[in-house]
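Aim 2 progress update. The chain analyzed this quarter is reproduced below.
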Amino acid sequence: MLQKNGLFERGWLPDVLPKSTTNIVAVNDLDNNTSAGNFTLEKTHLNKFLAHVEQTNLMNQYRFSDSDNTWLFIVNETGLVRYQLDKL
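Predicted C-alpha cells:
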C-alpha cells in the first residue's frame, strides 16, 4: 500500500502514482526545490501510470507537469522508476 509520508501533500511526488507503488526513496533538496529518487510499480499497474505521463523524445523517459512542478521519470521493464523533480 502506498504510504504518503508527506511526499504527495508537499508536492515532492505527483498524485498519479498507483496505490500499489512501493519502495519509495526520495532525496529532497529544500534549498534548490528539487527532488530525486526512485520507486517500484507493480508491472500490472505500469500502463495505468504511463497513461498519466507524456513520453519524451528519449526511450523510456516520461514527463508529468502541473502548474508548479515538472517531473521526469525513467521507467524500466521491471517496474523500477527513477525520477527527478524541478519545482518552478
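The chain is about 5% helix and 40% strand. The mean pLDDT is 89. These observations will guide the mutagenesis experiments scheduled for the next reporting period.
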